[in-house]
Every structure is written in structure tokens, then in C-alpha cells.
Amino acid sequence: MTDAFDPETLAFYQGNAADYAAWSKHRHLRLNQFLALLPAGAAILELGCGAGADSAHMLAQGFDVRPTDGSPQMAAQAALKLGRPVETLLFHQLDAEALYEGVWANACLLHVPRDQLGDVLARVRRALKPGGLFYASYKAGDGEGRDKLARYYNYPSEDWLRERYAEAGTWSSLAIEANRDVGYDNEAVTILHVTAQKAN
Ligand code: SAM
Q: Which of 9, 121, 138, 144 is deepest in the core (most CB within 10 A)?
């Protein structure tokens, strides 16, 4: 696969935006852990914000949030929730340089084609200020595939992810935690939670 995004996956979110928004639940534990490491009012970019629940939480805590999603329909759902416009931004269109103290990417970079992930991670790293923090989560596995809803996943192993992050540049720390969860497709999965800090 050479496209910088997966059209079938985006079509799924375009066609199911309202239903996905209704399903989305607040899981603030990891988000609060992430926010606790940032200065008050820090500038945060959210990638693949979906229905906007995490951006709503960050905004309510006083952070300066830029919510974005690659699907115009999902962005519209998030705009409804947040009461303000939400940008349509595909990961590979991210072009910011040293603007953010934090980048939050929950359950979205798992849709990036395997051969494109290094480039997207490098873009995220470039968008961070020195010392900035980056969280992303992935469904674990040992090679790309689609779920029963036809969504593409890169299904990484921990070692493969570490290689992709290293390919993107230097991080002063990189921690990976795993837990079990159930996705929108009702399947139990192992989630890899990756928190990386850009070197100062
Ligand atoms: N982060 C939200 C959450 O935790 O509920 C949404 C997660 S949902 C599983 C994945 C999101 O990634 C969808 O909203 C989808 O539109 C977005 N997405 C998929 N591919 C994308 C791409 N190439 N660029 C930007 N967003 C993308």
C-alpha cells in the first residue's frame, strides 16, 4: 500500500460518523495522566479527534486545543459537540513546526498504512516544541489487516513500533504500555499505548 491514508477506512468514518459518535465513551484516565505532565493552558494538537470527546475534556481543563480529524463528517460531529468549527486534517497534511506542547492521537494512527507511519510520526515530532509530549494508541498485532467493518489497521508489535518512532527522529523517552479493551467492532484487542517525549 502506498497511499498516505486508507480511503476505505475514511469512507467508513464518513458513513458512520453519527453512530460512532454515539458509541464513543469517555476514558479519561490516560488523558488525565497525559495532561498532568503538561503546563497549564498548554497548546495541544488532537489528531483523529473523532466525535470530539477528548478535545471537549481538554478544553474544559483550560488547554489551548486544536481539534482535527481526516473525515469531514467526523469533524462535523466534533464541531457539534464542541460548539466550534473543527478542521479536516489528514495526518500526512500536518505541516506545523514546533507549535505544540502536546499531541494527542487516541486510536487513530492505528489506521496509517505501515509504510507511511514513520513519515507521520516525523511530522508529529516536527510539530512538537522541544520537550513536547506525544501520546498515540494502536491495536497490537503482527502485520496489517482489516477488521470486519473493512477498516485498515497497521497492527504493530511493540518492537516494530519502536523502530518506526526511531525512524521519525530522536525522543528523550518512549514508553509503551499494553492493556485489553473492546473496539467499536465488538472484538477484544490488546491496545498499545505509546507516550514519547521530544528531546529538548
Ligand atoms: N480519537 C477518537 C476517539 O478516541 O474516539 C476517534 C478514534 S476513531 C477509531 C479513528 C479516527 O481517525 C476517525 O475519526 C477517523 O476519521 C480518523 N482518521 C482515520 N484515518 C485518518 C487520516 N489518514 N487522517 C486523519 N484522520 C484519520
A: 138
Q: Is 48 in the pocket of ligand 1 (CB under 6 A)?
A: yes
Q: Return the residue whose CA atom lies nearest to atom 24 of ligand 1.
A: 90
**CB 9 less than 6 A from any atom of ligand 1:** yes
User: How many folded domains does the chain comprise?
Assistant: 1
Per the structure, the complete domain to which residue 172 belongs is given by 7-198
Percent of the chain predicted with pLDDT > 70 = 98
Distance CA(86)–CA(148), nearest Å, equals 29
Kindly state whether residue 2 falls inside one of the protein's structural domains: no
Amino acid at 67: P
Whether the pLDDT of residue 31 is over 90: the answer is yes
pLDDT band at 195 (very low <50, low <70, confident <90, very high): very high
- The CATH code of the domain that includes 192 is 3.40.50.150
Query: Helix 28-36 to helix 53-60 angle, to the nearest 10 degrees?
Result: 40
76 within ligand 1 shell (Cβ under 6 A): no
Residue with cell 460531529: 77
